[in-house]
């Protein structure tokens, strides 16, 4: 459920009509619903009601806007971060360092040191050498780094190849059969407080079976580690639960997921960590755009909108579907291609799609754009960096400015030997 609905024929986000936001902020603009974020946070937590000890670390890569992080911090969420930049955001939003998980296959020594200084609660190690470096830095500071080993359970998540992470040929995690010996060696290092294992097999999963298979393998690993005398107090089960993008698509609910987790992990006797991203943020945002032209085409007309692949990269990158809905639909339909102004044929949001009839100047939204939307935006074609607005009841605020092309230009220099 979300809080995007028509009232008097006009699409609203909570109590705010979208034309009001377009008028105040311009377009394109991402618009988020605070009530939807809060609801998703609650529904995910409620889904895990049968898991006794748990911590939810929102994968902030999905939507790292500071206001969004503050909302989720207020819901008791921690953060899963993958860079020094994300860590700084989570801390700036007031998330307690203890509730922050530092993931990522390429954490630099500098990032590890900054994480230790900040008191990060858990480092998910991706390779043995990273564990050795972390242990050395921690020991030099008189600290013990709390860590897990991320394992690769070699499970096919059945999702798009570019967002699949749990097959043995992927760059992520330690092969699960090598994990016990590595655990033996790393657990001897005084600078490490090795507490358990972690996994994450991919994103936008539409089926619980691969997750269940991965978790079952993790359960066997935990048993093996305990047989070797290791105290395992934590298991990080990652994120990955998908959301429907297309009308009619069905996905396992957080309650289905939680029931599966409770059943697979019932004898684990460990605190479970979760790293949901998309399921919290996806349906909490839309990308509001204005139709520039409806250009006659050979097969179908092209609806050229003012949002482009630099603002929402998912269709170009993953052939992703985002529903396109007119803000003030007339009831008439048309079959059209939807494209942005960027000079690439890949800057196409949909081909031959049955959509609300729109004309030049009309407003429309791409739905389910709250996750992996604004955060993946760029300034390609010297376009402005897309702004973000948060709606909360009848209030709204710009929570990220539009960064104008001129501002970006001002950060560039011509060296003096080329100066005129
Ligand atoms: N934990 C780890 C270690 C991850 O790598 C990810 C996502 C998550 C948690 C959160 O996964 P989620 O619950 O959101 O599925 N840009 C792509 C998605 C990339 C996901 C990367 N890792 C997209 O737009 O579909």
TrEMBL record:
Binding locations of pyridoxal 5'-phosphate: 240, 275-278, 372
Organism the protein comes from: Sphingomonas gellani
Entry-annotated residues carrying N6-(pyridoxal phosphate)lysine: 61
Name the UniProt record assigns to this protein: Diaminopimelate decarboxylase
Active-site residues per Swiss-Prot or TrEMBL entry: 343
Domain Orn/DAP/Arg decarboxylase 2 C-terminal: 30-370
UniProt key word Amino-acid biosynthesis: yes
Signal peptide: none
Biological processes per GO annotation: lysine biosynthetic process via diaminopimelate
